[in-house]
Write a structure and sequence with these properties.
It is a single chain. The protein has 188 residues and is an alpha/beta fold. Helix content is 27%, strand content 28%. The structure holds guanosine-5'-monophosphate (5GP). Guanosine-5'-monophosphate is lined by residues 50, 75-76, 82, 105-114, 137, 158-160, 164-165.
Length: 188
């Protein structure tokens, strides 16, 4: 079934990771996290909005007693470049003191967002703070943050789908595609 295919073909240059590729990455990460978090009762935190899609698939591959929460932070506004300032939009409800916290991100790019969240959660007294990102884009990394677990490295291209947006749309595409450079240029 193809719904609104032209709409997608207009912006996507090529598919980078298929639905099956993503499933494999998620299974591999879930398996590793099951081993590493066994007996730790972690608090697994999804970073809205992008990671909500990955988070719900990832935790179902983790055979571990856990709690889940979400927080929303923003550094991009509606553009393609990080604004450099991270804002907390929705805070956690869960207490993090003495907890092993696993942050789930869709993509780590400059690392500013991850640094902001790690600092915040560490200051609140977490026992450990680690990050699992679906994608790791290292080309523009400006912070010495460590992405402890990730599905795949990506080049310095703007990707969309499986939670990642293009101007707040296309999050529901079930694969990850690269946005056409000319589309980015036209909207920059
Ligand atoms: P950072 O603070 O690491 O620079 O940016 C993290 C956030 O920027 C991600 O959670 C994501 O929302 C957004 N981002 C970075 N690179 C991309 C990309 O290639 N595509 C999309 N859709 N969002 C991105």
């Amino acid at each position: 079934m193809t719904v609104d295919a032209d709409h997608i073909n207009d912006i996507i240059d090529h598919v980078l990771y298929s639905k099956e590729d993503i499933q494999q990455m998620t299974k591999r990460l879930g398996h590793q996290l099951t081993k590493d978090y066994a007996g730790k009762d972690p608090l697994v935190v999804g970073v809205l909005k992008g990671a909500a899609f990955f988070m719900t698939d990832l935790v179902r591959e983790m055979d571990v007693k856990m709690q889940n929460d979400f927080m929303d932070v923003s550094s991009y506004g509606d553009g393609f470049e990080s604004t450099g300032k991270v804002k907390l939009i929705i805070d956690l409800q869960a207490e993090v003191k003495d907890r092993d916290v696993l942050l789930v991100e869709d993509i780590v790019d400059t690392g500013l967002t991850l640094k902001f969240m790690e600092d915040l959660i560490s200051k609140r007294g977490a026992k450990s703070v680690k990050c699992c990102a679906l994608l790791n884009k290292t080309a523009r990394r400006i912070n010495d943050v460590v992405v402890d677990y990730y599905g795949a490295n990506v080049a310095n291209e703007f990707v969309v789908g499986y939670g990642l947006d293009y101007l707040n749309e296309y999050r529901n595409i079930p694969y990850i595609g690269v946005v056409k450079p000319e589309v980015i240029k036209a909207n920059a």
